[in-house]
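BUG: 3D viewer hangs when loading the predicted structure for this chain

Environment: internal workstation, default settings.
Expected: structure renders.
Actual: progress bar stalls at 90%.

Input used:
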Amino acid sequence: MTRTVQGANVLITGAAAGMGRMYAERAVAEHAASVTLWDRDASALARTVDELGAVSRGRSRVQSYVVDVGDLGAIAKTAQRVRREVGNPDVLVNNAGIVRGNRYFWETDNGEDTRPTMQVNALAPMYITREFIPGMIANAYRASRIVNIASAAGTLANPRMAVYAASKAALIGWSESLRLELEQADHGNVKVTTVTPSYISTGMFAGAKGPTLTPVLDPEFVVDRVWKAMLAGTPLVELPWRVGLSRALRGLLPTRVFDRVVGDGFGVYRSMERFTGRD
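Structure tokens produced before the viewer hung:
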């Protein structure tokens, strides 16, 4: 892919606000042919489309679809409409995600916590990608990109966010495997970027405390790094770099030593105690 998404069809989930909207702004600024926004918040989505449309001035076609990606049945129906009304995306950013409270696992509810977290964070990116990846593969002479926004929580266990960590670990395992499958099958035009950031100051993790030497990240910084990595086809983005260091130490140190030195010593295992957040 070139240095921009100019002329490409871009689809972003969780795009009505926050970082999803920031990705959409980048796509419009780079004159993507179309920028398709998915979100469950109809009113916020309408405002975002109006504002991006005003900025675009017709250079990018900006449209939206109200869809809750936790409703796996709705994904196929909405994807069918996108292919018919817009065309298959060249760039897919699986950005939508949720996180529930700071309770221990046995205090959570399967219906209100476990199921929706796994559906939105882990299953939805798989279902959405499965809808669009055949079209990406078929258009072998056009560069395509899939960006999966995971989390450092998927690489490192953390008390009070067991299901969230599980959902992101599943996303990472699938995303990396998909990348390798595409390479093995010689579909080099489609590249996958897996993103594993620490806490980001979007409000989603309000109250969470960044571990020692791991500051809460600025969303503009993250979006910029992810966007550049996506264009380059970079396989993995770990933010900040200490996320990679923690992952390496987890593989090198005995479990109890890691728990004591990194988990407790750096404050990782206490980082969610005052979490209030939002979906």
